Amino acid sequence: MSAAQGGRPAGPPAPVARPAPELTLETLFRLDGSRALLVGGYGGIGEATTRLFAEHGADVAVAGRSLEKAEALSAELASGGARALGARVDLADRESVEALVRRTVDGLGGLDVLVNLAGIDLEAKAEDFGEDEWRSVLEINLSGAFWLSQAAARVMIDAGTGGRIVHFSSTRSVAGGRRGFAAYAASKGGLNALVKQLATEWGRHSITVNAVGPGFVPTGLVQHAVADDRFTAMMLNRIPFGRFGTPLEMAGAVLFLASPAGGFVTGQVLFVDGGVTASS
Fold it and tell me: pTM for this one?
């Protein structure tokens, strides 16, 4: 009897479980055959991640604001036998982001993994924060992350083979700081929520969406701060492990999320911070 005839309305069809992929110890952390786009892939953590991906078999597209740096790293990797290309992108410009994804697909033959390491931090007291500075941080760190995700996911959905998206968040996304992090914290907190939303929407396409939240890593951009003994002592006092992180430790977390080992992990923010967020 139908609902119109007085019967109970039909419920949704019973879900049909998709088969789990076959995993082997030999391929658990391999990326052979994967086409990966790494935005910000030539910075301190970015370069370590790009090199690790290439070493584990991925074809890589390295992108960022500096075409020169992107092409230099990709050329070095290509000379060592990897398949690599370099490209420029402005994350605040949606058309630039979409052009980058097209360039990656044309150059590598597809796109299976997106890693977004790019971001900016402009600091000021909350009561003094300027509109232009606020918009710049949000446009790159949050809107740019969405445009990247959207453009990459469209390719992955059309291909029908799933994919991996990994963004870089921050410990500032879950804890405030005494310095002027209003825009940065808001952008990264929003990114965490975006990761969960996209993971929920795109799970049916076998696309995982996650983030890595690094602790303090003394790369070139912040090396001057580590030279300050008082700053170093203050930072180390906040870290239960009693040391700073390394670029390769951050890259290893990304490799896990992008590899077959991380295939059932989605919607998560993996903090690689020596216990900072656990103890905050």
Answer: 0.91
Query: Dihedral angle at the C-alpha atoms of 67, 76, 245, 142, nearest 10 degrees?
Result: 30
Per the annotation, the verdict on 42 as an active-site residue is no
Answer yes or no: are the C-beta atoms of 108 and 83 closer than 8 Å: yes
Catalytic residue among 147, 184, 216, 256: 184
The one-digit pLDDT tens for each residue of the chain (280 residues) are 555 566 666 666 767 788 888 899 999 999 999 999 999 999 999 999 999 999 999 999 999 999 999 999 999 999 999 999 999 999 999 999 999 999 999 999 999 999 999 999 999 898 999 999 999 999 999 999 999 999 999 999 999 999 999 999 999 899 888 788 999 999 999 999 999 999 999 999 999 999 999 999 988 655 555 667 788 888 899 999 999 999 999 999 999 999 999 999 999 999 999 999 999 7
How far, in whole angstroms, is CA 179 from its chain's centroid? 25
- H-helix segments, the chain: 44-55, 67-79, 94-108, 131-138, 144-159, 182-202, 223-226, 229-238, 247-258, 276-279
Length of the chain measured in residues: 280
Three-state secondary structure call for residue 228: coil
Residue 71 and residue 92 in contact, taking contact as beta carbons nearer than 8 Å: no
Burial 128-143 (b: 16+ CB within 10 A, else e): ebeeebbeebbbbbbb
